[in-house]
Amino acid sequence: MxxxxxxxxxxxxxxxxxxxxxxxxxxxxxxxxxxxxxxxSIFVAQLNEKALTALSLAAxxxxxxxxxxxxxxxxxxxxxxxxxxxKNDDAVKAAVKASxxxxxxxxxxxxxxxxxxxxxxxxxxxxxxxxxxxGIAYLQVCMLFSFGxxxxxxxxxFLISTGKxxxxxxxxxxASITNLILDPILIFGRFGFPALGITGAGYATVxxxxxxxxxxxxxxxxxNKEIPISVTWKPEKKALAGILKVGFPAALMHGMTSVSGMLxxxxxxxxxxxxxxxxxxxxxxxNVFMVxxxxxxxxxxxxxxxxxxxxxxxxxxxxxxxxxIYSMVFMAFAVLFLEIFPQxxxxxxxxxxxxxxxGATAIRILALSMFISVxxxxxxxxxxxxxxxxxxxxxxxxRQMIFLLPLVFLFKMTNQVSVIWFAFPIAEILGALVGxxxxxxYFSFHATTQLVSEQKKEPDIAExxxxxxxxxxxxx
Length: 476
Known about the structure:
The chain is mainly alpha-helical and 476 residues long. The protein has helices at 5-8, 15-45, 49-86, 89-125, 129-144, 147-161, 165-188, 198-223, 237-268, 273-289, 291-309, 313-340, 342-347, 353-385, 389-412, 417-420, 423-457, 461-475. It has 18 helices and no strands. The N and C termini lie far apart (51 Å). The model is unreliable at 445-464 (pLDDT under 50).
């Protein structure tokens, strides 16, 4: 296998510029991707508020689906980048085969979830028959055709692992643009197509994902020669274990977010369906602004993993430091925007006067939690890149489950929905304190052990001189 500059630059190029160069394509692609989720909601909101509420209730299931892909992707990213850093051809080949096998397994699991869990899930979330039928109609399409989503997760990570984020941008943008074009056509009926309503939004989503998967596969075949594409039904156990060691905790971590969302929706719907719709809007708006930290997260993971494999701990620290600087500066401006213009944002979703008054408070408070969460997000990415998936998972569990949910249920007792929103920034502050513990543990222990390991490989000059002198004496 030929190792070219796309992968080798991860261990040599200045971190500040490298991180920015690798993250910008991912940020732009993710921006387009998240914008189409927002546009989905804007179009669906024109149908009625119940349809918008159904999308909000469906969001945790979509997060659960994404958790499978994100878990695989995280494991793939860490294993392949580390193998490239070690210049281990066989490990790269085995990881590729195992990754494609796992994509197929994930799709089969999603199909089982659709047939077994979908209707009981919505029946638990709402007693409103119209909202229930809207949600089932949308998610049936998204889950039945989710093979495109799973394949795109895997093949996009092959591109990211070798530093080809510009190719990743093309793949993700192709999916997003396809969705944006098809949304109004299939939802409202244009150019001779029937008006499918919320089901049309589901078809637009999956067609976009399939297009993105095809583009990503072609880019890997023709542009990513460092990744040998091959398929097998019997992947190597070691390769599977390596991906799952990092990927399973990451998937579980994202799954916790899904469970958290379900329980929070269950609390909010006790106040009104409008509260659920507002929470869904807040999450989608936050996802748009979080593209910068997430883009830096994606770029930082292969950089840290590569330099971990190459035994360069100083560059790992630099990647995290520059990631924090770039992310926090941007998010400061994002929070300011959300604090000033919450009602204008809500009007995009055909908000009633009731939704405007309730939603403005929610957007302003949740914007603060978004800013605080950046530290934990980036630290979690570093832990995953180093193979410390369990620590990353525990950090997320602390934020999403141990702190957030008890606070939500505690504040529910006030019977004031506006008070519940304060649970989010408080939980992020407590989570950041947990993150500080892992931060200190990583930057003290890991760097020291790598340094000791490197020193052990260095020849002892005194011992060499002693050996030479002893040899010369023997000859004399």
